[in-house]
């Protein structure tokens, strides 16, 4: 990251990669490590590995956005959709199922924060681009 603006535009992507990649590995290979999930069938193992693959694919897109400027907008959009999707899914669960443990409540807040931060970056980048085109 060469500038302060680069840091502001990408810090949430870096945080997301550092959180989502280990979670993906945990879901795929150690689902019982953090949760009371004990897959018994090959289909259940397959399901968790598919979730792992989806998380890793998203993290890969975010890494592309961190290192390649032409992928930054795609990385930002996918990060917003991913984080807000998780956050709103968790809010739905809280309303329907009740409150989870404190870690999940904090995780929900952080997912919503990262998603909103990504929207803010997208909006400010769009405004900056529009201003440079009119100058």
From TrEMBL:
- Which top-level group of life is the source organism from? Bacteria
Q: What's a Pfam family in this record?
A: DUF4345
Q: Where is the signal peptide, in residue numbers?
A: none
Q: Where are the transmembrane segments?
A: 12-30, 50-67, 74-92, 104-123
Keyword annotations from UniProtKB, A to Z: Membrane, Transmembrane, Transmembrane helix
Indicate what this protein is called per its UniProt record: DUF4345 domain-containing protein
Q: Which organism is it from?
A: Winogradskyella jejuensis
């Amino acid at each position: 990251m060469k500038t302060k603006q680069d840091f502001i535009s990408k810090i949430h992507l870096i945080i997301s990669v550092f959180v989502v990649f280990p979670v993906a590995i945990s879901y795929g290979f150690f689902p019982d490590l953090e949760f009371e999930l004990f897959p018994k069938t090959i289909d259940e193992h397959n399901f968790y590995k598919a979730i792992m693959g989806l998380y890793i694919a998203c993290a890969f897109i975010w890494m592309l956005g961190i290192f390649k400027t032409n992928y930054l907008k795609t990385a930002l959009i996918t990060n917003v959709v991913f984080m807000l999707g998780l956050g709103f899914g968790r809010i739905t669960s809280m309303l329907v199922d009740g409150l989870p443990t404190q870690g999940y409540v904090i995780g929900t807040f952080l997912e919503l924060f990262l998603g909103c931060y990504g929207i803010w970056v997208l909006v400010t980048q769009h405004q900056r681009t529009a201003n440079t085109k009119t100058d």
